[in-house]
Design a protein that fits this description.
The complex is a heterodimer of chains A (384) and B (82). Chain A is α/β, with parallel strands linked by helices. Chain A is built from 11 helices and 13 strands. The model of chain B has no long low-confidence stretch (mean pLDDT 90). Classes of the chains: A alpha/beta (384), B alpha+beta (82).
Chain lengths: 384, 82
């Protein structure tokens, strides 16, 4: 029986835990010292809230390489951000080319758009979950295309997709490039000033080490999708229409001040320590991958060992089902992982695990070599 | 502060611009205070920046250099005593 007080947390791809102490401190400070409604009044509590959000926007923009932070929109999460840009940019009759390894945060909005007349063309991945730019170019060249959509990295295989190359292809054919950065931000050094994406969506609570309930969407200056919701923005109150100016156009309603403050603090932490955390994550992920691959009957999904990936390692076993493995790891060893399809049946279809699912180890902040060794020993016992 | 002091007040497109203005003016050592937007500027962003009227020109230059979206400005005689 695992120590009730001890958890060995390998579910960072779902949400990171623990967070740097600065995150909770910033959120508590925002609630206690800046508890007004940001942008709605000029008294000190409201100004404090507005300043907290402005500071956070600047911190997140700096981390992601966004030159003008007015183009960084705070959202309730990555799923909302993706819905905003997909539903705001695509209209009936438009065509979109999308990778065949997308998360349901992309699949489901596109499915809804397809029902309203958007043509969705899917580019299949190889058996490692990788997208070939030549396949995307072939698909885009077949017919006028409004957008190319692709994840930056996979939440199952860890594969890093060539989104910079895909952006070039999209632009050569007059399309915009929309990127789901859910598994890349924080785990990779993302520089949106050079990546070429017209839209890049991130969650606050995964690799960026911020709280749940907040995310961000970068929009290139000349890319102007419709807003997803309308409402109060704190200004131009006499106008019935939503203001055009950023970020107000896309941030109707009272902002998540504490969440933004926490995300800003997390971004500042990563700006200072990100090189170290990323190096540690990569080292631990390699150690984990090599150890898992050495267990008889265990198959590691995704790119071959030695190829670059984000710190996600998913496996199947010939002897245990994913749900059995996850339950045993948690109850007997205190190791937290995620079993199932990970909200991405497309990816599991590509790598041949749609019928079985897999067990995912998400490596991240706070883990050490001893945790990897414990997880490997537990896996050897459960699957041996 | 005099109860009848004259100020220049700058209005902005968004709260983000108002806060960017506050930071830019502070860095340029231009005395500025964020206030509720006077009706004379219309219902723009809810925040405006008030500076002594003698600093209006310098403030305008600072805001332009900082790429702040200024929606207008007015001179206002302060009647609040604040």
């Amino acid at each position: 029986m695992a120590d009730e007080q001890r958890i060995v947390y390998f579910d960072h791809a779902a949400t990171s835990w623990p967070k740097p102490p600065e995150v909770a401190a910033a959120m508590a400070e925002a609630m206690a010292e800046a508890g007004g409604n940001p942008g709605r009044s000029a008294h000190r509590l409201a100004l404090g809230a507005a300043r907290a959000i402005a500071r956070a926007r600047s911190q997140v923009a700096a981390l992601l390489g966004v030159p003008d932070d007015r183009n960084l929109i705070f959202t309730p999460g990555c799923t909302y951000a993706l819905n905003l840009v997909l539903k705001g940019a695509l209209e009936p009759g438009d065509r979109v080319v999308v990778s065949g390894v997308e998360h349901n945060a992309v699949v489901r909005p596109l499915n809804a758009l397809a029902a309203s007349g958007v043509e969705v063309t899917i580019v299949r991945a190889d058996c490692f979950g990788r997208i070939d730019p030549d396949d995307v170019e072939c698909a885009v060249a077949q017919a006028p295309t409004r957008a190319v959509v692709c994840q930056h990295a996979s939440n199952v295989t860890g594969a890093i997709q060539p989104v910079g190359d895909l952006a070039d292809i999209a632009h050569e054919h007059g399309a915009v490039m929309i990127v789901d950065g859910a598994q890349a931000a924080g785990h990779l050094a993302v520089d949106l000033a050079v990546l070429g994406a017209d839209a890049y969506a991130v969650p606050g609570h995964k690799g960026l080490l911020g709280p749940q309930g907040i995310g961000a969407l970068y929009l290139a200056p000349d890319f102007r999708p419709r807003e997803l919701v309308q409402g109060g923005s704190g200004g131009r109150s006499e106008d019935a229409g939503q203001p055009d100016e950023r970020p107000d156009r896309y941030e109707a309603g009272t902002a998540n001040t504490a969440g933004a403050a926490g995300l800003g603090a997390a971004a500042a932490f990563l700006a200072a320590h990100g090189d170290d955390t990323r190096a540690t994550e990569q080292r631990l992920a390699r150690r984990l991958l090599e150890g898992l691959a050495a267990i008889p009957g265990v198959r590691v999904l995704g790119p071959p060992a030695g190829e670059e990936r984000v710190p996600v390692v998913s496996v199947t076993s010939e002897r245990r089902t994913p749900d059995e493995i996850a339950f045993a790891l948690d109850r007997r060893f205190g190791v937290a992982v995620r079993a199932g399809l990970h909200c991405t049946p497309w990816t599991h279809d590509a790598v041949g695990t749609l019928e079985t699912g897999a067990v995912r180890f998400g490596v991240g902040y706070g883990l050490a070599d001893a945790d990897v060794d414990l997880a490997l020993a537990a896996m050897a016992e459960v699957c041996g | 502060m005099s109860a009848s002091a004259l100020f220049a007040v700058f209005g902005f497109e968004t709260t983000h611009d108002a806060l960017r203005a506050e930071r830019a003016l502070e860095e340029a050592a231009v005395e500025a205070v964020l206030i509720p937007t006077p009706k004379a500027l219309g219902a723009l962003c809810g925040l405006a920046a008030r500076v002594p009227v003698a600093c209006a020109g310098a403030a305008a230059d600072v805001l332009a250099a900082a790429d702040v979206r200024v929606s207008g400005s007015v001179e206002v005689e302060d009647r609040t005593g604040a």
